[in-house]
From TrEMBL:
Classification via PANTHER family: 40S RIBOSOMAL PROTEIN S15A
InterPro entries: Ribosomal_uS8 (IPR000630), Ribosomal_uS8_CS (IPR047863), Ribosomal_uS8_sf (IPR035987)
Record carries keyword RNA-binding: yes
Role noted for this protein: One of the primary rRNA binding proteins, it binds directly to 16S rRNA central domain where it helps coordinate assembly of the platform of the 30S subunit.
Organism whose genome encodes this protein: Desulfurobacterium thermolithotrophum (strain DSM 11699 / BSA)
GO biological process: translation
GO cellular component: cytoplasm; ribonucleoprotein complex; ribosome
Protein name per its UniProtKB record: Small ribosomal subunit protein uS8
Amino acid sequence: MMMDTVADFLTRIRNANFVYHEYADAPYSKVNEAIAKILKEEGFIKDYEIREEEFKRTKNPENKKKLIRVYLKYGPNKERVINEIKRVSKPGRRIYVGKDEIPLVKAGLGVAILSTNKGIIPGYKARKLGVGGEVLCYVW
């Protein structure tokens, strides 16, 4: 059983990005979809889609699972758009910040993704809305 689905999702993206894969597949969750949406809006990935696929071990059509497929983005000379993607708050140690403590990632070149009472949003939107929350990850 997987404990931290967000860390698994980010690790799959990080590993696929490292070896220049076209896309990365991960188990679907609403949190993963919200993170993928932010990554797309911020220009770190091309796109994402939700897919239903059958389990590989059985032929029963009822055994389907939802996946999220993230299409990675690279520059013209195979330069990575995502230089690093880092999980901050973990199940063993949650990191919460107030509205005045929201971190700037790489002096504003990156983005902090927060889970707030307004949903999962980037750090600059949380500052604008005046809300704090749990820091899920940094991307730059």
